Amino acid sequence: MRVKKILNNNIAIVEKGGHESIVYSTGISFKKKVGQLITDSEIEKTYVLDSKDRLEHLSYLLTNTDDKTIGLINDFVDYGEKILKQKANDYLYLALLDHITFAWKRGKKNQFIRSPLSWEVQKFYPVYYKIGLHALQMMRECYQIDFPDDEAVSIALHFVNIQEEKSLLDEKIKDMETLQDMLNIIKYHFNLSFDESSMNYMRLVTHLQYFIERLRKDKNHGQSDSILFQQVKEIYPYAYTAVEKIDIYVKKKFNQYLTQDEYAYLMIHINRILERKENES
């Protein structure tokens, strides 16, 4: 492959088979000139991107990033690939380099961003969160900055992109946000703290997950059992008032109403949570 542009002593843009790539290795461009050959044995890492804009963006970031950060991100990806047993696309390097560079700059000023998806990522993407925690520890050691655990969440979501189409990832993130909204409605309505290890809590979360998927796909259960609804409403009036708030939220966000069956099931699940809370009091 031939050198098309030298970015610095360690980074160059090369052309092979009519396609441009970025190559990285310590001293790879030293004493090289445009048009000269670079052999595969000289290259530590090759970045292949699918658009000129992304190539230019990554070129800029690599040129303006120190070697320890580049090495750090390469180590992140190597570890993630081993855990997932899957090859990462090179867009991941661009996304991580962009993210880590800004995280480092914020960290030096003791400015950190809280992630609203911390709980959801830990629950729904435990393997990816493990990768994020590993990367977080490496960041703390490399920069000597006490980054919060939220950074592990952000890094985990970048790795989710390896397997998820962006549209599907966006969809899952929205579902996680909706789930957290519904749990918060219950939490603040009753002024309680959830025992996330309890079976009743896990049943509630599982039910809400399927419920949210139904809302997103706009699928109805069909006819509702009005007798069951009335019976449960009378037995669990406090749970009913909480479900009313969820119904208002659903109407506003999805332009749908809860069916009477959905009211009944949610009341039953919520009451189980309340009964456990009362027994602990």
Give a written overview of the molecule.
- There is one protein chain.
- With 281 residues, this protein is an alpha+beta fold.
- The chain has 3 domains: 2-51, Roll (Transcription Regulation, Sacy, Chain A); 67-163, PRD domain (PTS-regulatory domain, PRD); 168-280, PRD domain (PTS-regulatory domain, PRD), CATH 1.10.1790.
- It is built from 11 helices and 4 strands.
- It has helices spanning 52-63, 67-84, 91-108, 118-124, 126-143, 150-160, 166-190, 199-217, 226-235, 237-254, 260-280; strands at residues 2-8, 11-16, 19-24, 45-47.
- The protein has a 4-stranded antiparallel β-sheet with strand order 1-2-3-4, covered by helices on one side.
- A hairpin with a 2-residue loop joins strand 2 (11-16) and strand 3.
- It starts with a strand and ends with a helix.
- The model has no long low-confidence stretch (mean pLDDT 85).
- Keywords: Repeat.
Short account of what is shown:
Helix content is 63%, strand content 8%. It has 11 helices and 4 strands; from the N terminus they run ββββααααααααααα. Helix 7 crosses helix 8 and helix 9 packs parallel to helix 11.
* Helix count, DSSP H or I runs of 4 or more residues: 11
The proportion of residues forming helix, as a percent range, comes to 55-70%
Mean pLDDT, nearest integer? 85
Rg over CA atoms, rounded to whole Å, is 25 Å
Number of domains: 3
Shape: elongated
Order of helices and strands: EEEEHHHHHHHHHHH
Number of strands: 4
Q: Strand count, sense and closure of the main sheet?
A: 4 strands, antiparallel
State the secondary-structure class. Answer: alpha+beta
- What is the terminal separation in angstroms? 72 Å
* Binned strand content: 5-15%
Q: The CATH topology of the largest domain is what?
A: PTS-regulatory domain, PRD
Low-confidence segments: none
Strand order of the largest sheet: 1-2-3-4
- CATH level-four homologous superfamily name of the largest domain: PRD domain
From the 3D coordinates, which CATH architecture of the largest domain would you assign?
Answer: Orthogonal Bundle
Supply the CATH class of the largest domain.
Mainly Alpha
GO molecular function: RNA binding
Pfam family, one: PRD
Protein name: Transcriptional antiterminator, BglG
Keywords: Repeat
